[in-house]
Each structure stands twice: as C-alpha cells, then as structure tokens.
Amino acid sequence: MKTGASELHELGRDLVKVSYLKGDFILRSGKRSNRYFDKFLFETDPALLIRLGKHLAALVPKATQRLAAPERGAVLLGGAVSMETGLPLVLVRKEPKGYGTSKQIEGHLTPKDRITLIEDVVTTGGDSLRSAQVLRDAGADIIHLVVVLDRGEGGEENIRGAGIPYSPLFRVQDLELD
Questions:
Q1: Over the chain, what HEC string results?
Q2: In 10 A of CB 10, how many CB atoms?
Q3: Can you give the pLDDT of all 178 residues of the chain as single tens digits?
Q4: Backbone dihedral angles phi then psi of residue 7, each to the nearest 5 degrees
Q5: pTM of the model as a whole
Q6: For residues 132-166, b (16+ Cβ closer than 10 Å) or e, as one string?
Q7: In terms of Cα–Cα distance, which of 174, 142, 145, 148 is closest to 157?
C-alpha cells in the first residue's frame, strides 16, 4: 500500500510526464520560458484529474463553505475538488458575460461565504488575484488558495502579499524535471 508521501511523489512524476514541455513559450505573465506545464494535458486526463482532485481536496481548509475556480483553466480542477469534498463550486469569468444573465460569477454565491480558490498553475499570481478580487467585490471572504503547481516566479509572494493563505500541491523546484 502506498503512503501519502509516495502517492504524492508518484502524482508529481505523472504530472511531469503528461504535461511538461520544453521549447520556447510565452507565459500569461508575458515572460518567456524554455519550460511549460500544459494544464490542459493534465486536466483532461481523467485518471490524473481524479488524483489531483483528491490531493487538492486535502489542502482545502475545513472552514471552507464554497470553492471557486477561474474560468477555463481551473474549471475541471474545481469540479474534481468539489466532487471530492462535496462543497459547492462557483466559476469566475474573466469578464462578465455579454449575454443572458451577464454574470461574472456563475453558481450560487452568498455574501460572506468563506471561499477556497482552486488554481492550476501559478507564475506571478496575477490571474489568481484578479479572480480573488472579483469574489471579494461580490462579498466573499477568500480564506485560501490551493494550486496544483507553483512555477516559483513570484506568485506565492504576490498572493500572500494580498493577504491570501496559499498552498501549492507542487513547487516546480520539487519536481523531477529532465
């Protein structure tokens, strides 16, 4: 039987195997990088997504009333963590939708809800902080942010600097990259 630590180590190895790419990439932050973790490769692999949901769920504080995930990139992760924990999920759009209900937050959100934000990959933390601000503007209390991978490029400092407790499942320096 695998221990939690060996299970997590194996998950990190599988994450690298499935989604780590080498080349010349422009990151969301605008920075150039010779390495890239393609979140869609690990989020669209059902076996990997289930395992990530389980391990991310373990990082969600007990005081959490609701989960939130930014649109597109972290929606599947948010769903996996929601199914693992039984906590409801809201989705945060980059911009309010221009049709129908014109909402920027999808799902049921009540002011003062204690929210844990779920993210995929953090570089500078800019997108995470934008999502947190949208939720705060709606009256939510962001009590934690959990992320699959921290690239180690200032995101943790920026997120903690905004007063948000932060837990990465993996830090890039802890993964075995070839």
A1: CCCHHHHHHHHHHHHHHHHEEEEEEECCCCCEEEEEECHHHHHCCHHHHHHHHHHHHCCCCCCCCEEEEECCCCHHHHHHHHHHHCCCEEEECCCCCCCCCCCCEECCCCCCCEEEEEEEEECCCHHHHHHHHHHHHCCCEEEEEEEEEECCCCHHHHHHHCCCCEEEEEEHHHCCCC
A2: 12
A3: 466 789 999 999 999 999 999 999 987 778 888 989 999 999 999 999 999 999 999 999 999 999 999 988 899 999 999 999 999 999 999 887 777 777 899 999 999 999 999 999 999 999 999 999 999 999 999 999 999 999 998 999 999 999 999 999 999 998 988 7
A4: -65, -45
A5: 0.92
A6: bebbeebebebbbbbbbbbbebbbbebbeebebeb
A7: 145
Identity of the residue numbered 73:
G
Residue 120 Cα distances to 97, 108, 111, 113, angstroms: 22, 22, 25, 22
